């Protein structure tokens, strides 16, 4: 593995202790905010952790949200390794979901084992296609991918609204959503799968897509660190001049990595539409594409880190929802503040605690060195 | 030169300076005493601790322990401002000038005085006139810095330091960017400064410069001072041995070339930069088996672009590049195609292009060759093959530490370069393009790298050597092409090439070419 | 789907909770994305709930949705924790209500702005086209330029329903009147972008519009502000918004979500709550136009007379307002 952070800290501190300290700091500040509005921080923390992990239902929902974030987090990370900041995972997930949804609508009467590959392929192809245009513009025309992917989020949103409101809507209803998929296009729920092997589990939207996401995380790791294509992607991302020198075309890497990124984001529909909503509705990615950026950032663009960060953000979504359910004064905007604090401390401010920690560890190693020379 | 006044305290005295970075012991109890009005040399290999020491003296970072005395007074520097206030000035290797400001504006930058700039500028103008008169440092004060040649820009840096009241002037590798004539001017100027009582510390790795201008020299190795001697009592060989810690060969041993068939032919090549400006203008030459052809020139005169065009990195606007192996047909235009034709390339700027600093050594050792079947097993990279190949290269080229998993950023410049050389030479090329093979490389490694290049030549390969180090060009080349302003303005044999001749040609004086043995081919 | 086993567990739990809290009536309300402080639709609903709570002293649970999956989860949780009636605000809740209502047949559900046909679900819909029709008439009567404007929120069938009624009402007064229509956007953000609302209104003013009607949630606040700044007229939506800019808001298309919520709670408590579809129009006082001390000076008696006549004709069936049909 070569997630190469600064080499000044031991690995376990870099990858274990530092994130925990950052998270703790975020929680302390959140606690002050909760305190300020007149609720007990401890009670709030307990509600949140219980709400996220305290029951089968809680775990189910946490991992269900996490599944979305794994897809989009991996998508952002793959682009990042190619030196590209893909802000467009939201739009790619939206359009990719359209592909998955159309398979659900049209082929839902097929048996599930036949629908699944079609739905995966359609989600990936639609998502990749949506990422292709910004990628091509970047590679051939130098249009900055950050700008174009943001714009494509809006275009995706407009296109989907048009399609759902005017074309795909189930006739004779107000709500802009399609009819329900037929049974074949429904992802087996975790409760159903576990039920088959005799393990009781509460019914939650958690479904097979979670395992697909785990599998993809492993595949992304193999791709990036164990294949020549992943090698080329990382060379181009870390040192474009060296890539040109090595005969790796940055333009091709840009397009290839973005196609892969879009395909990963495009699979979100498997979880959200086939796993939970069973229809196409407006705005179903619900910001998961943007959370994916934070997840990739916190997970240091490494699949293992992304899994951990995705679960954390899933827990924040689910625990936060429970918090505002049981503590009405902590309304949903307060929950957003808490989530924002976590992103702030774990992402933007991560170096705040790095320096003191480095000082501590340097001091320690100097003491050790002195000890040796004295003897 | 004035003799140091033995009664006066030394201009700069360091006592037991110690500095660690984590586990790296960068300075080990360094003590140093530099007399007022002298030019003092500080030499050592990369990583010997010279830069750390000078950064401490200039207030960039604090020492862990030890004492700094300036003119006999103990000082503690929290920042460069403190050092400047104590009369220390520094001229960095990379100039710290604002290109689109005038010389005057650059000099007063940061010491303008009041809020309104006009009175400060007027005061500075008269003060600078006096400085220029005293030290022979004439510079056009109202010219934009970007329009000045490098030598004059350096002079601006020196003036800037003097204007801030520097009594002690530190110059970090000042000659790296200069042509020989400019170097001579610089040294004359330094002599005059010392003559008037200023103290100069010259940080360099070029032994010849030490011998030419300094009165005393301090040699550092592995963070410690290993020798401090009067320059006239030592020799370059002696200094080199002290730097490296063992005997070294300064001169490359080689037999006369036996040039064979033409392997690379370049005809009327024109290369433009990103702005459409021609950098290489109608260059033609050929390269034969069994010879090393050196390309001399001041940095920025088209050598880099020439090298990149040959390697397939830049697409030429005009002209033809033929590699013999391809049956005389024009070569494929991208780097991968060139590699397949047996053209290997050691790039000029190793860190920018030759390696991926964050990657491990083993992954850097396949850069450009990562698609070869020998490194792949199906869709996966063959980890064992990659590691094995890297271990063999590390052993063969004495890359230390011999750990393929270490990131390349953890290796010294010399070891990085040996890894790159190993990668390119072991790919068994017919033609090797080499840019600045010894830039930032220790003396010990330089010797090794030079031997590899000669060995490759002796094995019947062709080597194109681009370097700004004239010693290297003269010592290694069988023929020397001189580039100036994007053109090849002459060809010399190493026997007839002297520094003066090369210097004049590099400055663009074409007549010298007439004295050469023959004109470049294709003209 | 293996809900049967779970359904059974829940029924047991439900019975247990019902036994524990048999005495206490527990109402709950779930707002949509807009949130309960949108000064419009959701806020109106929350006012109805607050009124009920104030009059009866009974506390109610409430929740603001932030993502699609939450709807089902929260409603199921409310049901599990013993809520007697759950009012879901907004058409986007329909599918969640449908699912959860099936799982909890003993719990009453009221969904506003959508139709869910289940034995324990009451679907309340408003004939927004009727109040829009009156607002269109008011605009046509008040305009001096002969051009009136419409700013919708997100481009969805509901908002097109508003627009259609508005245009019909205006044409009823002045057959050749020009109506300039804009939708704010295609994402839910279109409900909360008052800056964009003001921009759209200003561009309509630039083209000669002097009365603008918004059906755009919080975005409409910008529309009304722009009209006030330009010295022109606006028409509010959902809640009575006349007070926001007295003398500049011509009238408001009222949609009495507050009444609907209040009645749902009250009826559920009294045992008079009934499942099924409920359509509220002018006749049922479910929609109306506003007339109060804030717009009395600009909505002249002559105008008011025309509007009241038309209102009576709509109630009496003499005027048929067409309804937008999503294909």
Explained architecture:
The complex is a heterotrimer of chains A (375), B (523) and C (327). Chain A has 375 residues and is mostly helical. Chain A has helices at 11-36, 41-53, 56-81, 89-107, 112-141, 145-168, 190-196, 209-226, 228-238, 240-245, 250-266, 268-277, 288-298, 303-326, 332-348, 350-374. Residues 1-7 of chain A have low confidence and may be disordered. Chain A is globular, with a radius of gyration of 22 Å. The longest helix of chain A has 30 residues, at 112-141. In chain B, 46% of the residues are buried. In chain B, helix 14 packs parallel to helix 15 (443-458). Chain B folds into two domains: 12-244, P-loop containing nucleotide triphosphate hydrolases (Rossmann fold); 262-354 and 429-514, Rossmann fold, CATH 3.40.50. Chain B has 523 residues and is of the alpha/beta class. Chain B starts with 11 loop residues before the first strand and ends in a 9-residue tail after the last helix. Chain B contains 18 helices and 21 strands. Chain C folds into two domains: 3-127 and 258-280, 3-Layer(aba) Sandwich (Rossmann fold), CATH 3.40.50; 128-254 and 288-316, Response regulator (Rossmann fold, 3-Layer(aba) Sandwich), CATH 3.40.50. Chain C has ten helices and twelve strands. Chain C has helices at residues 3-20, 41-56, 68-80, 94-103, 128-142, 157-173, 194-206, 219-230, 257-270, 301-316, and strands spanning 27-31, 61-64, 85-89, 108-112, 121-126, 147-154, 178-185, 211-215, 233-238, 249-255, 276-280, 287-289. In chain C, strands 2-1-3-4-5-11 form a six-stranded parallel β-sheet, sandwiched between helices. Chain C has a six-stranded mixed β-sheet with strand order 7-6-8-9-10-12, sandwiched between helices. Chains in contact: A-B, A-C. The A-C interface holds A 61, 64-65, 154, 157-158, 160-162, 165-166, 169, 171-177, 180, 186, 189, 191-192, 195, 200, 202-203, 205, 272, 276-277, 279, 281-284, 286-287, 317, 321, 324-325, 328, 331-333, 335-336 and C 1-3, 5-6, 35, 61-64, 66-70, 72-74, 77, 91-92, 94-95, 113-115, 125, 154-158, 186-188, 325-327.
């Amino acid at each position: 593995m070569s997630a190469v952070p600064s080499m000044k800290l031991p690995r376990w501190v870099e990858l274990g202790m530092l994130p925990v300290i950052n998270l703790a700091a975020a929680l302390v500040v959140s606690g002050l905010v909760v305190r300020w509005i007149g609720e007990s921080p401890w009670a709030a923390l307990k509600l949140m952790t219980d709400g996220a992990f305290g029951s089968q239902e809680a775990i189910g929902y946490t991992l269900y949200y996490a599944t979305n974030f794994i897809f989009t987090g991996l998508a952002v990370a793959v682009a990042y390794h190619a030196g590209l900041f893909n802000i467009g995972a939201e739009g790619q997930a939206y359009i990719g979901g359209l592909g998955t949804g159309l398979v659900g609508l049209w082929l839902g009467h097929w048996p599930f084992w036949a629908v699944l590959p079609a739905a995966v392929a359609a989600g990936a192809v639609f998502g990749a296609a949506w990422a292709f245009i910004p990628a091509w513009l970047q590679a051939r025309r130098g249009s900055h991918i950050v700008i174009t992917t943001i714009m494509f989020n809006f275009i995706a949103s407009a296109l989907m609204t048009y399609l759902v409101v005017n074309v795909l809507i189930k006739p004779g209803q107000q709500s802009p959503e399609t009819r329900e998929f037929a049974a074949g296009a429904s992802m087996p729920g975790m409760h159903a799968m576990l039920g088959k092997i005799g393990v009781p589990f509460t019914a939650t939207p958690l479904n097979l897509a979670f395992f697909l996401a785990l599998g993809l995380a492993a595949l992304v790791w193999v791709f990036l660190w164990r294949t020549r294509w992943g090698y080329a992607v990382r060379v181009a991302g870390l040192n474009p001049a060296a890539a040109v020198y090595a005969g790796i075309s940055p333009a091709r890497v840009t397009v290839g990595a973005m196609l892969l990124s879009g395909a990963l984001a495009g699979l979100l529909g498997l979880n959200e539409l086939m796993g939970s909503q069973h229809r196409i509705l407006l705005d179903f990615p619900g910001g998961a594409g943007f959370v994916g950026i934070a997840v990739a950032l916190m997970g240091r663009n490494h699949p293992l880190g992304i899994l951990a960060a995705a679960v954390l953000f899933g827990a924040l979504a689910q625990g936060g929802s429970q918090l505002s359910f049981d503590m009405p004064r902590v309304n949903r905007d307060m929950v957003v503040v808490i989530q924002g604090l976590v992103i702030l401390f774990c992402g933007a401010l991560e170096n705040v605690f790095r320096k003191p920690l480095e000082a501590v560890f340097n001091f320690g190693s100097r003491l050790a060195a002195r000890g040796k020379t004295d003897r | 030169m004035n003799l140091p006044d033995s009664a006066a305290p030394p201009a700069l005295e360091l006592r037991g300076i110690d500095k660690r970075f984590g586990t790296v012991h960068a300075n080990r109890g360094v003590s140093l005493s530099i007399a007022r009005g002298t030019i003092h040399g500080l030499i050592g290999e990369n990583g010997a601790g010279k830069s750390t020491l000078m950064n401490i003296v200039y207030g960039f970072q604090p020492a862990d322990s030890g004492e700094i005395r300036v003119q006999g007074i103990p000082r503690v520097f929290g920042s460069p401002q403190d050092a400047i206030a104590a009369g220390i000035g520094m001229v960095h290797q990379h100039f710290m000038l604002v290109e689109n400001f005038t010389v005057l504006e650059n000099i007063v930058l940061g010491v303008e005085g009041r809020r309104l700039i006009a009175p400060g500028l007027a005061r500075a103008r008269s003060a600078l006139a006096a400085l220029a008169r005293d030290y022979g440092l004439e510079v056009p004060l109202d010219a934009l810095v970007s329009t000045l040649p490098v030598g004059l820009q350096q002079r601006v840096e020196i003036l800037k330091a003097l204007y801030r009241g520097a009594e002690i002037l530190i110059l970090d590798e000042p000659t790296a960017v200069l042509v020989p004539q400019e170097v001579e001017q610089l040294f004359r100027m330094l002599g005059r400064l010392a003559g008037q009582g200023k103290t100069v510390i010259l940080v360099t790795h070029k032994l010849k410069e030490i011998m030419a201008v300094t009165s005393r020299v301090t040699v550092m190795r592995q963070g410690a001072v290993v020798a401090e001697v009067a320059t006239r009592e030592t020799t370059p060989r002696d200094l080199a041995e002290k730097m490296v810690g063992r005997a070294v060969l300064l001169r490359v041993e080689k037999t006369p070339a036996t040039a064979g068939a033409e392997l690379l032919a370049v005809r009327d090549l024109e290369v433009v930069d990103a702005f459409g400006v021609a950098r290489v203008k109608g260059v033609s030459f050929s390269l034969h088996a069994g010879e090393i052809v050196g390309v001399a020139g001041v940095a920025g005169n088209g050598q880099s672009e020439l090298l990149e065009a040959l390697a397939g990195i830049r697409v030429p606007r005009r002209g033809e590049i033929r590699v013999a192996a391809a049956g005389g047909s024009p070569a494929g235009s991208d780097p991968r195609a060139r590699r397949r034709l047996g053209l290997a390339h050691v790039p000029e700027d190793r860190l920018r292009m030759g390696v991926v600093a964050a990657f491990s050594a083993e992954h850097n050792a396949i850069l450009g060759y990562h698609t070869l079947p020998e490194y792949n097993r199906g869709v996966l990279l063959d980890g064992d093959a990659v590691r094995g190949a890297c271990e063999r290269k590390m052993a063969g080229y004495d890359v230390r530490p011999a750990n393929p998993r270490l990131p390349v950023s953890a290796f010294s410049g010399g070891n990085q370069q040996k890894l790159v050389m190993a990668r390119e030479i072991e790919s068994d090329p017919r033609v090797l393009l080499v840019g600045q093979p010894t830039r930032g490389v220790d003396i010990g490694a330089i010797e090794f790298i030079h031997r590899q290049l000669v060995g490759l030549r002796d094995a019947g390969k062709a080597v194109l050597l681009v370097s700004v180090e004239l010693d290297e060009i003269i010592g290694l080349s069988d023929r020397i092409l001189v580039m100036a302003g994007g053109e090849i303005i002459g060809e010399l044999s190493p026997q007839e090439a002297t520094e003066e001749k090369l210097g004049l040609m590099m400055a663009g004086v074409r007549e010298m070419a007439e004295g050469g043995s023959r004109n470049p081919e294709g003209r | 789907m293996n809900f049967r086993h779970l359904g059974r567990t829940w029924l047991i739990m439900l019975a247990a909770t019902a036994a524990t809290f048999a005495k206490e009536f527990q109402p709950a309300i779930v707002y949509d994305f807009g949130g309960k402080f949108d000064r419009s639709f959701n806020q109106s609903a929350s006012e109805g709930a607050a009124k009920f709570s104030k009059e009866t002293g009974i506390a109610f649970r409430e929740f603001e949705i932030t993502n699609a999956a939450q709807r089902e989860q929260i409603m199921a949780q409310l049901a599990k924790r013993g809520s007697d009636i759950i009012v879901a605000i907004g058409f986007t809740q329909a599918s969640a209500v449908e699912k959860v209502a099936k799982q909890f047949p003993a719990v009453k559900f009221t969904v506003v702005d959508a139709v869910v046909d289940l034995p324990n679900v009451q679907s309340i819909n408003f004939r927004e086209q009727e109040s829009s029709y009156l607002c269109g008439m008011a605009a046509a009567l008040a305009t001096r330029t002969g051009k009136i404007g419409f700013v919708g929120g997100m481009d969805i069938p509901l908002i097109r329903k508003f627009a259609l009624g508005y245009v019909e009402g205006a044409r009823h007064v002045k057959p050749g009147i020009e109506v300039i229509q804009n939708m704010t956007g295609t994402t839910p953000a279109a409900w909360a972008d008052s800056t964009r609302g003001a921009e759209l209104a200003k561009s309509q003013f630039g083209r000669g519009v002097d009365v603008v009607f918004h059906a755009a949630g919080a975005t409409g606040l910008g529309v009304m502000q722009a009209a006030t700044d330009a010295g022109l007229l606006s028409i509010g939506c959902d809640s009575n918004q006349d007070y926001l800019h007295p003398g500049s808001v011509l009238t408001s298309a009222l949609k009495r979500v507050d009444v609907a919520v209040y009645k749902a709670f009250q009826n559920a408590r009294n045992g008079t709550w009934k499942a099924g579809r409920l359509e509220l129009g002018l006749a049922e006082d479910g929609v109306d136009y506003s007339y109060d001390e804030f717009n009395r000076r600009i909505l002249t008696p002559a105008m008011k007379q025309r509007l009241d006549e038309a209102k009576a004709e709509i109630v009496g069936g003499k005027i048929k307002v067409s309804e937008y049909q999503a294909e």
